[in-house]
Amino acid sequence: MTEDPTATLTRLRSSIDNIDAALVYLLAERFKATKQVGHLKADHGMPASDPAREEQQVARLRSLAEQADLDPAFAEKWFNFVVAEVIRHHTEVADSR
């Protein structure tokens, strides 16, 4: 007997909700780490942005995305969005010193 479509939808949405929650917590952990990086950079007069590191990360994440069957362009867009926020935070920390 096949599962009722409404039950299937509810089950799938529950799984999506759990994944979304995990992503939020993972992003929070990532930003805790980047906050520490921002303070370290500000303390030592380092620039908020590191284009060489960002380029390496884009290549690494695009490769991981391909392995995970995720659109590499999407992974790059996501990374660029996150990095822009990180740089904004780093700049704020540096400006407050």
From TrEMBL:
Pfam families from the UniProt entry: CM_2
Gene3D superfamilies referenced in this protein's UniProt entry, alphabetically: Chorismate mutase
Keyword set includes Phosphoprotein: no
SUPFAM superfamilies recorded: Chorismate mutase II (SSF48600)
Keywords noted in UniProt: Isomerase
This protein's record includes keyword Isomerase: yes
SMART domains noted in UniProt: CM_2
Domain Chorismate mutase per the UniProt entry, residue ranges: 3-94
EC number(s) recorded for this UniProt protein: 5.4.99.5
UniProt-listed InterPro entries: Chorismate_II_sf, Chorismate_mutase-related, CM_bact, CM_dom_sf, CM_II_prokaryot
Superkingdom in the source lineage: Bacteria
One Gene Ontology MF term: chorismate mutase activity
Cited NCBIfam families: CM_mono_cladeE, PRK09239.1
PANTHER family xref list: CHORISMATE MUTASE
Protein name (database record): Chorismate mutase
